[in-house]
Amino acid sequence: MCSRIRFAAIVALFIPVSAINAQNIKDYDRLFTGHDTLEVEIQGPLWALAKERSDVGEVDAIFRYTAQDGNLVEFDIALRTRGNLRRNPAICNFPPLRINFKKSQTKDTLFDKQDKLKLVTHCKDGSQDYVQDVISEYLAYRMFNQLTDYSFAVRLVKIRYVYEDKNRTVDSYGILLEHDNRLAKRIEASKPDADKTTISSLRREDLNLVSVFQYFIGNTDFSPRSSFPGEGCCHNQALFVPADGLRYTIPYDFDQAGLVNAQHAKPNPRFGFRSVRTRLYRGRCINNDLLPDTLEKFRAHRADFEALLDNQSELTKTTRGNMRKYINGFYKIIDDPRAVDKHLLTKCI
Hints:
Elements: H1 22-25, E1 38-44, H2 46-52, E2 59-66, E3 72-81, E4 97-100, H3 103-106, E5 116-120, H4 128-147, E6 154-163, E7 168-177, H5 180-186, H6 204-217, E8 237-240, E9 248-251, H7 291-300, H8 302-311, H9 317-334, H10 337-343
Parallel strand pairs: 1-6
Antiparallel strand pairs: 1-2, 2-3, 3-4, 4-5, 5-7, 6-7, 8-9
Helix pairs in contact: 4-8
């Protein structure tokens, strides 16, 4: 089948959930129920798009993939660049993208009811190290999925970029990220129009889970309370409000995490680190009583995290080994009561 589409480029309840439940995502989001790598092609004026990097202007492009029945599905779409750090041409020569689908033209396809989707892209062409960065960040999302349904669903895509304005193709990987509105519907919550919040408005169990997860992956590039001017709350953590009013905070954007160890990542200057692989706990002291149960949850999912690494065939042996070593460092800390006291309980804020 062929349809033409324009391609415009939590605070979580602490419940014992082992992974994003396909039943919760439901049929209307079947794009995210599978975890096999989806092969797609994006064709358009990509050279001009990467050069201009407008955060409002869109360019027409074409999106293709092969459906399960073997038929080629093609959409006319619109796309634009997005993001902050990775949109800076001094840091990345290829920016993150936002894909704009028309729901009427994606009906009854894998992209049914999808609208605007964020695409996490490779930072630079020409090196497999940047491909490994994308796959590593994808696995960080999947690991949080193992801990709670109150997390962004993701799909890894193998992409062939066809530059209409440069007579070239680039093969890489990307991450399709569940839209905020779809996540809100899935968890039966709404997204508040706010640029900041208070710690007291967040669910304690959820905030503690997220705080330990950020420590687990070695990330300090986030805030559960506020963000940069003009951005919604909060910095790399999205707010969602269910009927009872207490907010979920759901993390995203893990390229600065030590687990990912991206080529373009830089240590947070606020803390004076020399390496992004240096961990620092940013959990709240008022939630220290919850830490034992939270750490037990991470122990219960250690095998799940290791299985994700083992089963991701696109990882190189070196990347897999480095990620496993980093994860082992986390468990060495949480399995030692003195280390928990030194690195978490006394480092809370």
